[in-house]
Specification:
The complex is a heterotrimer of chains A (390), B (292) and C (245). Chain B is mainly alpha-helical and 292 residues long. Chain B has helices at 2-32, 39-57, 61-89, 94-116, 141-163, 165-175, 177-182, 187-212, 220-233, 238-259, 264-278, and strands at 132-134, 137-139. In chain B, strand 1 (132-134) and strand 2 (137-139) form a beta hairpin. Chain B is globular, with a radius of gyration of 19 Å. Chain C is an alpha/beta fold and 245 residues long. In chain C, the strands form two sheets. In chain C, strands 6-7-8-3-9-10 form a six-stranded mixed beta sheet, sandwiched between helices. A four-stranded antiparallel beta sheet of chain C has the order 2-1-4-5, with helices on one face. In chain C, helix 4 packs parallel to helix 7. Classes of the chains: A alpha/beta (390), B mainly alpha (292), C alpha/beta (245). Chain A binds chain B through residues 47-52, 183, 210-213, 215-222, 224-225, 240-241, 244-245, 248-249, 252-254, 270, 273-278, and chain B through 3, 6-7, 10, 14, 113, 117-122, 127-129, 131, 133, 138, 140, 209, 212-214, 216, 218, 221-222, 252-254, 256-258, 261-262, 264-265.
Chain lengths: 390, 292, 245
Amino acid sequence: MQRRGMVGKLGIVLLAAVLALVLLLPPGGAMAAEAGPIKVGWLGILSGTLAPYGIEHKTGVEYAVEKINAGGGIKGAKVEMIYTDSKFDINTSVQAVRRFAQQDKVAAIIGGISSAVTIATVGETARLKVPQIAGLAGTPKITEMGSQWIFRTYPSVILTYSSLAHYAIDKLGHKKFATLAYNDEGGLSSIEVFVKTVKEKGKGEIVAREVVPLDAKEFKGVLAKMRQQNPDALVMAAAAPVSGLVARQAREMGWNVALLGHGGYQGIQQYRDVAGPAGDGTLIVTTYAPGLFKHKEAQEFVKEWQAKFKRMPKDLEAHGYDAMNMLAEAIGKVGPDRQKIRDYLAGLKNWPGAAGIYSFLPTGDIRKSLVVSEWKAGNLTPVVAIEKTD
Amino acid sequence: MSQLITQIIYGCTIGAVYALIALGFSMVFRAVGLLNFAHQEFMMIGGLLGYSVLTRLGLPLPVTLLLITAACGAGAIVLDKVGLWPIRARRGPLINAIVATIGWGIIMSNGSMFIWGPYSLSYPTFSQLKPLHLGSIALAPQYLFIFGVGALVMVLLQLLLKKTMLGLAIRASAEKPSTAQLMGVPTNYVISVTFAISGAMAGLAGMLIASLYYASFDMGILGLKSLAAAVLGGFGSIPGAMLGGIALGVIENLGSTYISSTYSDIIAYLILILVLLIRPAGLLGSSGGSVA
Amino acid sequence: MPASDTQAAPPMLRLTELQAGYGNLKVVKGISMEVPRGELVAIIGPNGAGKSTTLNCIAGLLSPKGGQIDLDGEPIAGLPATDIAARGMVLCPEGRQIFASLTVAENLKLGAYCRWNRKEFTHQIEEIAALFPRLRERLRQMGGTLSGGEQQMLAIARALMSRPKVLLLDEPSMGLAPLVVEAIFETISELQRRGVTILLVEQNARMALSVARQAFVLEMGQVVLRGAGEELLQHPQVAESYLGV
């Protein structure tokens, strides 16, 4: 930590030097930049265990940009993306935001993948007054910090885990729940929401709550302890490969408890890869399922995606695609002015995108359509759409 | 009660894997006085290579195990000859050699990310197996398999060290290298063999652990725990590495089952430190450094 | 002895203008000597005269800085210790250097590393036991548990296991009680009688000179006196400096 602090200081000194240079440049440079492409910064994890999330989101953004630029850009101006690997590191992320805002002069920032890192960037985009559309941040916190500049297209765990609780009790008839959370912001806040919703409904009961370290791989002890409480369902909030191990080890013990989860975690192919057949039957509240939403934008997106990629689009791909298009619409309407972009986004209601119909709340939080899916014979199969959420 | 027994068996299984890796840390340390921080990355390479061989070449598991074990053994020799030996031969400071191992470790893990990507790759073999029922105890059969392989390798290693001329040369070179040379023992060759055995066991451990969980470029971190296991048992002591590995595995598992899963690492390391405060040399360690 | 004979059979060990040292420090400054086949030659001298450095250089633990070393007519200067051991010259190092964590039997087995043969080993153990009866009872004991005298016996026994042409002994009397020293030197003489060529380095000049056919006095890295063992015992300079007369 101390070392990171040092690097931070050095970074600031370097940044100051770069800024000084920029200020010394003749004004012609700045003029030329205005007439040039519209720059958008993208920030997310492209290396390490969590890289699959970042890569998936980036793929969706890239596809949207490709389409926009192929269609002549935004009012003639091409979109130029600057992709940065946050390395799941707070310092790297904050530095990237500063560079985007001050050096690259981006119109807006898309990203922040993972709660811990995204939280750190929210204060920075608020200070620098840059609109930020968070990529994947399960934590509710980012839109509860009082920033006017933060938005999310990917719903927080409040929406997904409360919907999961409603669905599990009302439609599946489960009563006793055990929960297993990753010891990080996303995992802990997910289970917090689930537990709170169950208590508020007054119809179910939490019989076991376990929190596991990020590098844990052996869960048989924890699972055995939970099993003694005889829950109807086990609710998981941990990264895909880790949840996969939980599912596999539960079945290896011969424990056939119902497994419940969330698209950002257990909806990812890695979950099923690691879990193997043990992953089948897991019910998941997902934020997206290709083909399940009937509106035109969603249907066309699937068709075009399939033509290009020869496969179905994934959850974060659709959300990344939507974030970019939402931003492009704003810039197209009001120009590359950060304040105006923010105001435009804040007013979006019932915006039809690839991954559902979006409405922003005043906090920048989102209400959008969800889907309940189930792993069946190795495929994540949509079961039912939750059109309206609250 | 049956729950306790089950958890101990699971702990022993993970512990056997820890022990395989810990042995390599200990053996290399004894042979060249070096803490080899690239060692755990051979476990990672074993896990990932094993995945590729199983899924791409489709070789049967026992063949793959042997192949990967051999490949990681060879890799460890190359690491030493190319990346460490030149520092030793020119009598560079020990700390420089240690830093070089850290560097090689980082290069190996990042290099693996380029080759295999940042994904968690799970083995196809084991996941279909049904649990075994022994009385009231339900056991996943791969745990027994892994424990068996780990135990077998450790027995073979003990036989090699105790019953063969090569083993004698390894032990003698570790204790007094120049005297061993006076007896005609080619100590450079013995050091290469030591690296090979360490790398091979780490690679094997990597495949075993990956078959249980999954392989990923950053799984070396699990191997670093084995360093703690080696210290717990008494650093440099070979039976100590075995005992330390199994003790750490069992402590971790019982800690997360009966106390708190959140704090299983804290519990494990507190116990490690407690043992060291009472027995600074570790469970089986002695300042003189007995091999067996 | 006819001249042609000496030409046909070179001395077992010959040093020609040997120089050695550590870093920039030169400790051995041009030593020449011969150790004839089957004889016992001693080097005596004060601490720091370069005696052990000379032996380490001959055994290959240290590379010479100049000069030649010939073993049985073949140049060996600069070869690694392993190769020199394989060519039949073994050093019993200063301080005995017993492998404390190996048993006595394992120490002996390691001595036979160069020419390992299980059948012969059993046979050799018997020979060793005849020469050093005390080692026989201790075969299964750890090397580290032996007394100083027993360790010295083991060190010599271990060196003999490879059936060396030349045995190099570095301070075999060091730290041992007088009675034990006598026993050790008796054994050394016995080995010489059996035909082993021996180069002995000793601070205990009286013992060394009483068993050596020839001896060299080393001071400041140079040979200052040479002669038959008996002769040097009588030499006034030796008597004064090394025999405490």
